[in-house]
Amino acid sequence: WNTGPDDELLKLASTDGLSKPGAVDAQVKRMMADPKASSLVTSFAVKWLNLDGLDSVKPDPVLFPGFNEQLRHDFLYEAEAFVSSIFLEDRSVVDLLTADHTFLNDRLARHYGISGVTGPQFRKVTLTDKERWGLLGKAAILPRTSYGDRTSPVLRGAWVLDKLIGTPPTPPPPNTATDLSQAAGETPRTVRSRLEQHREKATCRQCHGVIDPTGLALENFDAIGQFRTTDRQASNAPIDASTVLPSGVPINGPIELRAQLADHPATFAEALTEKLMMYAVNRELEYFDMPQVRAIVHGAAKDNYKLSSIVLGIVNSDAFRKQGL
């Protein structure tokens, strides 16, 4: 709830009621069913997904004249409503990757190229376009992992590794060249080709070999999250979203990337659980916390990784229950 305990919790605490068998679990379930549980979206999920910095995104107005502040607001609203529909309905957290619905108004629907949505109010829409399913298809994620004038497979790959897989890449060494800008008068090239040239450097290859493949699978989305098959900034060169993941699995595009992530639900659930436990105990996790995280995920697997199972696991963990002891 991101607030103080209510009267029921205070009364239970004062009468030692929370120590009775099943009492804590019952209160967790009661609190998660309350509208105040929406703070799990606004106070946790928005920060976990790095969407609290969406205001920092400044798309080039010449390249993207259709972008404006109203659309930026729509991006964030859609993302919050989508996460809410998973969290507050106590669905499997894996649905964050695979759900075939979103929330649109007419402006955001036009941005996506979806017809049949009229009016400024948001409503739940079932998506026939599989590229838009789950978090990977949401406009808020895609500009947040781009630059103002181009996409960034590096930023997108690092975001997926950190947020969805739980293996954040190490920062580049000091003084490493990271600018992929083209010189004036140079023949326009796709971001992919510029990145491949950059990766030829021995100092860059080791990290980029892990980061880039995941981000390249999202190249069909431009810097403001619109789907494309050609790159207008590179003389309409065809978009190549094929790649080979570090695991050795070849994929092509966001649908196949999402399928690979969803095929390893425990990996995603562990990445989310780790961040949610950090939020719950208000500190970085240590090596001795990780067996608890894995145990929580293992337990939640029996309940299809429902959010309530993960929250109950955290609340009943030593990391949460024995803080300050």
Furnish the topology, listing elements before pairings.
Layout: H1 7-14, H2 23-32, H3 39-48, H4 69-87, H5 95-98, E1 101-104, H6 106-112, E2 123-126, H7 141-144, H8 153-165, H9 191-199, H10 202-216, E3 230-231, E4 237-238, E5 242-244, E6 250-252, H11 253-262, H12 265-281, H13 290-301, H14 307-315, H15 318-321
Antiparallel strand pairs: 1-2, 3-4, 5-6
Describe the structure.
By secondary structure, the protein is mainly alpha-helical. It is 46% helix and 6% strand. It is built from 15 helices and six strands. It has helices at 7-14, 23-32, 39-48, 69-87, 95-98, 106-112, 141-144, 153-165, 191-199, 202-216, 253-262, 265-281, 290-301, 307-315, 318-321; strands at residues 101-104, 123-126, 230-231, 237-238, 242-244, 250-252. It has a two-stranded antiparallel sheet. A hairpin with a 5-residue loop joins strand 3 (230-231) and strand 4. Helix 2 packs across helix 14, helix 3 crosses helix 4 and helix 12 packs across helix 13. The chain is globular and about 75 Å long.
Number of strands: 6
Q: Roughly how many Å is the radius of gyration?
A: 21 Å
| SS field, number of helical segments | 15
Uncertain regions spanning at least 5 consecutive residues: none
The quaternary organization reads as single chain
Q: Order of strands side by side in the largest beta sheet?
A: 1-2
Q: Order of helices and strands, N to C?
A: HHHHHEHEHHHHEEEEHHHHH
Distance between the termini: 24 Å
Classify the secondary structure makeup into a structural class. mainly alpha
Mean of residue pLDDT values = 92
The major β-sheet equals: 2 strands, antiparallel
Shape: globular
Helicity level, as a percent range? 40-55%
Strand content: 5-15%
